[in-house]
Write a structure and sequence with these properties.
Helix content is 39%, strand content 19%. It has helices at residues 18-32, 45-50, 95-98, 116-131, 148-159, 209-216, 225-231, 241-246, 281-294, 317-329, 342-354, 367-376, 392-398, 409-414, 420-424, 438-452, 455-466, 472-493, and strands spanning 2-6, 36-42, 52-61, 69-75, 88-93, 143-147, 167-172, 180-182, 202-203, 206-208, 219-222, 251-253, 304-311, 333-340, 359-363, 379-382, 402-406, 431-433. Helix 5 (148-159) links the parallel strand 6 (143-147) and strand 7. Helix 4 (116-131) crosses helix 5, helix 5 (148-159) packs across helix 6 (209-216) and helix 9 (281-294) packs across helix 12. Bound molecules: adenosine-5'-diphosphate and alpha-D-glucopyranose.
C-alpha cells in the first residue's frame, strides 16, 4: 500500500500542537507495518531547513500568485527511530508563500496570514497533482491521507481531476479550525463554480476548506472514537455536524498513540532522572527538580499539578483559575506551561504573583521543558471543553502523572475514572468530571487530593496509568484497514 500524508506540521521540525506529534509518528508506524509511505509538507523555513538530502523533483511554475513553485524530495531526519527506515518527504518550495518568520498559520502579531487561502490551497493542489501521478514519474500513492483543513483541499482537487484513481482519507484533528475564506476569492482556487454550493465547499457564504475533506474524501476519520460520535452532534459539530452526519458510516475514529521513542521516562535524556514502574525513585527527583526550576516550594509532600497546553478556550483553563482556591486549600501546587490567549496568559501570571512558591507559570513553547513537566508532576490537568484526542494526558499516563480530565472527546477513550468499581477492578488511571464548571473541577480536585493522601491508592493509579499502551502500531493497523476500504470505495465510484 502506497500512502501519501499531506499536512502542515511535523514533529520535530514544525509544531504548534498534537497534529505535529501525529505526523511525527504515524507515517513511521505505517512504514514499520510494511506500507510505502511518503509525506508532503509546505516549505516553511523549519521544514525546508530540516528535511535532509533534498533534490528537485519538478518545477511547477506560477500558481496561486506570481511566485515560483517547485517540488523537492528529501528525507525526514529520524534520530532514535528504527535503523534502516527512512521517511521520504516532499517539500513544496514556494518562498513567496512559506518563507517567513512566525508560525504556520499566524504572523508574529498573532493575526492570520492574509494569504492563507493561497498558502493552503497550494498544499492541497500539489498534494492532489502528486497523488494523481502528474508530478513525480517515479512514485504515486494508492491513498492520499490529508490532515485537517490545511491539507483538505487536496480532496476537492482530486474530485475534479479527470482520471483520478487515488483514494482519499481525511482526518479531522480539530473541527473548530475550519479554514474559512471569503467567497469572493473562490476564483483563485481554479475550481469549477459548481463546487461552491452548500453541498460542496460553501459554508454560510464563505469557502470552507474543512468541508473539502469532510465532503469529498472517500473516508473521514478523527482521532478518537468518542470524538467521531461527538462531531455528529450539534453540541460539538461546530456547525458541521450535519455534514458529518450525512457521511454516515464513512466517518470513524482511530485513537492516536504515544511515540515511545520520544516519550518514555525510562530513557528520556532530558529529565532529571529516569524511572520506570518498578523503580519510581527517579520520579521524586524529577519532582524536586521541577519545583526548583519553577520556583515552587521544595516540598516532596505537596501534590504538584501541571498544565502543558495551548492557552485557548478549548482547553478550559479558565476553570483551573476559578478552581485554584480549592487546589491550594488542599495543599496543592500548580505549574503551568503554555502560550496563547493573552487574557489567560495574564491571568496565570497574576495567579503566580499572588501565590509565590505555590503557583508558577512559564509562558511560551518549550518542547524539552514539557518532558520535565510530565516527569515532575503528580497530576496533569486537562479540563478541555472539547478534545478530539488529547496527547498530554497520554504523555502524563506514561510518565506516572495522574490525569484529571473532563469527560469529553478522546479523554473518555484514554482515561479510566477512579470510580469505586474501577478501583476495585484495578482499572482506574485518573479522575474525570462532567460539567465544564469550576465547581465540577473543584470536586474532582478534592477527590484527587484525597487519593494522594493514600499513598498505596495513589501508587496503584500511577502504575495502572504507566502500564497503558497507546500504540501507534495498533493505530497504523487500523489505518491500513481503512485505506483498504477507501481504495475499494474509490474503485467503486470510478
Ligand atoms: P492540541 O493539539 O489541541 O494542542 P494535544 O494534547 O493533542 O493538544 O497536543 C499538544 C501537544 O503540544 C503536546 O505534544 C504537548 O506537549 C505540546 N504542547 C502544548 N503546549 C506546549 C508548550 N507551551 N510547550 C511545549 N509543548 C507544548
Ligand atoms: C488537535 C486536537 C487534539 C489532538 C491533536 C492530534 O490539535 O485538539 O485533541 O490530540 O489534534 O490529533
Amino acid at each position: 500500500m502506497r500512502v501519501l500524508h499531506a499536512a502542515a506540521e511535523i514533529f520535530p521540525l514544525a509544531k504548534t500542537g498534537g497534529l505535529a506529534d501525529v505526523l511525527g509518528a504515524l507515517p513511521q508506524a505505517l512504514l514499520e507495518a510494511g506500507a510505502d509511505v511518503r509525506v508532503i509538507l509546505p516549505g516553511l523555513p523549519a521544514i525546508k531547513n530540516g528535511v535532509e538530502r533534498k533534490r528537485l523533483v519538478c518545477e511547477i511554475g506560477a500558481i496561486f500568485g506570481a511566485g515560483k513553485v517547485s517540488l523537492l524530495l528529501g528525507q525526514m531526519p529520524m534520530p532514535g527511530k528504527s535503523p534502516g527506515t527512512s521517511l521520504p518527504v516532499y517539500v513544496i518550495d514556494a518562498p513567496y508563500l512559506y518563507q517567513r518568520a512566525g508560525n504556520p498559520y499566524l504572523a508574529l502579531d498573532g493575526s492570520e496570514w492574509p494569504d492563507n487561502l493561497q498558502r493552503f490551497a497550494l498544499l492541497g493542489w500539489v498534494a492532489a497533482h502528486l497523488a494523481a501521478g502528474e508530478l513525480d514519474a517515479d512514485w504515486r500513492p494508492d491513498v492520499l491521507h490529508a490532515h485537517d483543513w490545511h491539507a483538505a483541499m487536496a480532496c476537492a482537487y482530486l474530485k475534479v481531476f479527470p482520471a483520478s484513481t487515488v483514494a482519499t482519507v481525511f482526518t479531522v484533528h480539530n473541527l473548530a479550525y475550519q479554514g474559512l475564506f471569503d467567497e469572493a476569492d473562490f476564483h483563485m482556487l481554479g475550481l469549477p463554480a459548481r463546487l461552491l454550493t452548500p453541498a460542496g465547499l460553501e459554508f454560510h457564504a464563505q469557502i470552507s476548506f474543512m468541508k473539502a475533506g469532510l465532503t469529498y474524501a472517500h473516508r473521514v476519520t478523527t482521532v478518537s472514537p468518542n470524538y467521531a460520535t461527538e462531531m455528529a452532534t450539534e453540541e460539538f459539530g461546530c456547525g458541521l455536524d450535519g455534514v458529518v452526519r450525512a457521511r454516515g458510516r464513512d466517518v470513524s475514529g482511530i485513537l492516536n498513540g504515544v511515540d515511545g521513542t520520544v516519550w518514555n521516562p525510562e530513557s528520556d535524556a532530558g529529565i532529571a532522572a529516569t524511572y520506570s514502574p518498578s523503580a519510581l525513585g527517579g520520579k521524586l527527583r524529577c519532582k524536586a527538580a521541577l519545583q526548583t526550576s519553577m520556583g515552587l516550594k521544595a516540598d516532596p509532600g505537596a501534590q504538584l499539578f501541571a498544565v502543558v497546553s495551548r492557552l485557548t478556550h478549548q482547553k478550559g483553563l479558565d476553570l483551573v483559575l476559578a478552581a485554584l482556591p480549592e487546589l491550594l486549600a488542599a495543599g496543592g501546587q500548580l505549574a503551568v506551561q503554555g502560550s496563547g490567549d493573552a487574557a489567560l496568559e495574564a491571568a496565570f501570571t497574576a495567579a503566580a504573583a499572588s501565590h509565590p512558591g505555590r503557583v508558577a507559570v512559564r509562558l511560551g513553547y518549550d518542547e524539552a521543558f514539557a518532558h520535565q513537566m510530565m516527569a515532575g508532576a503528580d497530576a496533569v490537568l486537562v479540563p478541555s471543553r472539547f478534545e478530539p484526542c488529547g496527547l498530554t494526558q497520554l504523555y502524563a499516563l506514561r510518565y506516572g502523572a495522574v490525569p484529571v480530565v473532563r469527560r469529553v472527546g478522546g479523554l473518555v477513550d484514554t482515561v479510566v475514572d477512579a470510580s469505586v468499581q474501577a478501583l476495585a477492578r484495578d482499572e482506574a488511571t485518573g479522575f474525570m468530571f462532567d460539567a465544564a464548571t469550576p465547581a465540577a473541577l473543584a470536586a474532582a480536585l478534592r477527590q484527587t487530593a484525597n487519593a494522594y493522601a493514600k499513598p498505596k491508592l495513589w501508587r496503584q493509579l500511577m502504575l495502572r496509568g504507566m502500564a497503558q499502551r497507546f500504540s501507534w502500531g495498533d493505530a497504523a493497523a487500523q489505518y491500513l484497514s481503512l485505506y483498504g476500504e477507501a481504495v475499494q470505495a474509490a474503485t467503486a465510484m470510478r
